[in-house]
Fold:
Amino acid sequence: MPIHEGFGFDLLQLDTAPWPRLGARGALVLLEGRGDFVDCQLVELPPGGQAEPQRHLYEEVVHVLAGRGSTTIESSGRRDSFEWGTGSLFALPPNVTYRHFNTSGREPARIAAVTSLPLVLKAFHDPDFVFDNDFEFPERLGTAASYRGEGEFIAVRPGRHQWETNFVPDLRSFELRAWESRGVGSSNIKFVLADGTMHAHMSELAVGTYKKAHRHGPDFHICPVTGHGYSLFWREGDADFTRIDWRHGWIYAPPDQVFHQHFNTAASPSRYLAIAYGSIRYPFTADKQGLFGGGDRSVQQGGRQIEYEDEDPRIGQMFRQELAGHGVKPDRRMEEIWSSRTPGAI
Structure:
């Protein structure tokens, strides 16, 4: 089984090989910014193929990259099945028995699972305990409706609104809520999946806009869902930026306390999914608790976010040039922000 290590990858292009435990092709993806708790497991199902049944104590949040299929989950005398396609998102509660199927007879399917295997295996250092344990968590299964794409909207405040479910049929069309303090035209939703400690949220960048820079601890695996763009990374005091260009299929993870900023260069809104360990309901670490409590507070006030007026002038200059290369105009509100700065700054 290949092990891919690096800053970021196009998961649709990565090499896979037979993975005996799964009975399918796969690869392990270890990102530089993954932290200590999570990994990414890439699974490829051949046309009409299926994986072997699996059961393990660690949690998984699964993003469907390409193809269509179904998954069957069995636990506590219940059996739930649901069909998924490109853009689907679902959670596998700990220690359920599950099996993936490719329902297309012509096209392979690729799914990416961000899991808590590193945390669980390091904590117990006993593979039999992790992979051959008969303890069940019936309360984590939710209701049958949780696997039909139904859920509950939990209204909190912008940037903290939540959708509780176990399965989202299509992230590309899911309704988001405005979160303007994170950037012009920004919107977001936090997912509560299978009442788990694994976290997921989705954000959207409007046309001709970019998010405000921010930083946090490691392990957020970012998966673009629609559109295309780029992200910049830097540590405080760095003279220059590191850049990743992304589109659907990519995955990357900002390293610990590295500032990062996401830019939409598409002529339509761009969405990305972020998966990590430590959820909005069960933060697990003090860093996650602080992030979910005030991640959109300015660094000038002791927070984690750089406001537009405080950012490096090169950031706006680069974005204008990138948009011009794609034939896209900046959002009027971005123009107003830039023009309000000191003359010559942009």
